[in-house]
């Protein structure tokens, strides 16, 4: 059970990232056909993850508190955790319903609203929920972080999958990569700044020595180092795109692989106690 909660959180992060990436991309919305099968499959898998993860979080909380099923309504109604779970579960289910659908103007709008709801709610079950001094600020940082990562890494993953299954001229074009590059260029600073803000709220006035002495702090520094690697890889591909080329597939895979390790570190950190709390 020690690894159950991080795995469930990782499932939630993955599903939310793909959903936000889907909402941020326009070319995926109009694509159909055999060459996009990998994208369609990823959307269905992410939709399932967005349903399973909140339910699994609820079951883990039930087991941790040793509650019966008849006591669950009280947990959801009368506790901060329960209300936060409801705020997360509703947009997750809506996103899961909309995510695999063929895109129209209406479904795209509702998907965007739903995934923004997921981003806003994810802080309600994490460390931001425990910030009694500046709770809204902490949750805003978390929401910006989740939305930025989703638009950047989720969009990159879907573009990569679209190209991986392409035939003929169906792979993402240089123009589509330029559109994504502009989005990533905006979202990367959002991710970085919101991450710094969240880290500040977690560690508080703790010294670097105190932060490094905690398990949370060591994982945090590892995460920061990996994020810098992702930024460096992304910057290199941005230069290729600006020169009219498409990104090198191997470099994109490396960027996504390092980002996946960052997700794992984040899922593990969420269950740790920061030195500033």
TrEMBL record:
Keywords: Cell membrane, Membrane, Transmembrane, Transmembrane helix
Matching Pfam families: CopD (PF05425)
Record's keyword annotation contains Membrane: yes
Principal localisation: membrane
Membrane-crossing segments per the record: 6-29, 41-64, 84-101, 108-129, 149-171, 183-203, 215-236, 256-272
Domain Copper resistance protein D residues, every copy: 178-269
Swiss-Prot/TrEMBL GO biological process terms: copper ion transport
Protein known as: Copper resistance protein D domain-containing protein
